[in-house]
Amino acid sequence: MKIVIIGAGAMGCLYGAYLSEKNEVTMLDVYEPQVDAINKNGITIVEPDGTERQHKKVCAMKYIGNFD
């Protein structure tokens, strides 16, 4: 499934990271440094037990295009 999340702040990144495990996720945000960082490094989630999980299958865009 293709999913677009508007906003790449803390909550947007949390949902986007987990949803990207089984879906195609695109993050939309107006803050260009955040968009660039997600595209370069993905999203890192620190779990409650202290382990880190890297989610690299997320892409980010500054401007919206056509989505299904």
Describe this structure in words.
By secondary structure, this protein is an alpha/beta fold. The chain has one domain. It contains two helices and five strands, in the order E-H-E-H-E-E-E. Strands 1-2-5 form a three-stranded parallel sheet. Helix 1 links the parallel strand 1 and strand 2. The longest helix is centred in the first third of the chain and has 10 residues. It is globular. It starts with a strand and ends in a 7-residue tail after the last strand. 19% of the residues are buried. The mean pLDDT is 92.
List keywords for this structure.
two-stranded antiparallel ribbon, 29% helix, 68 residues, three-stranded parallel beta sheet, alpha/beta, globular, single chain
Structural class: alpha/beta
Helix content: 25-40%
How far apart lie the N and C ends? 10 Å
Give the SSE order as H and E letters. EHEHEEE
In round numbers, the mean pLDDT is: 92
The stretches of 5 or more residues where confidence is low (pLDDT under 50) are none
Radius of gyration: 11 Å
Q: Estimate what percentage of residues fall within beta strands.
A: 25-35%
Number of strands: 5
Concise structural overview:
This protein is an alpha/beta fold and 68 residues long. The chain is 29% helix and 32% strand.
List the helices and strands and how they pair.
Blueprint: E1 2-6, H1 10-19, E2 24-28, H2 32-41, E3 43-46, E4 52-55, E5 58-61
Parallel strand pairs: 1-2, 2-5
Antiparallel strand pairs: 3-4
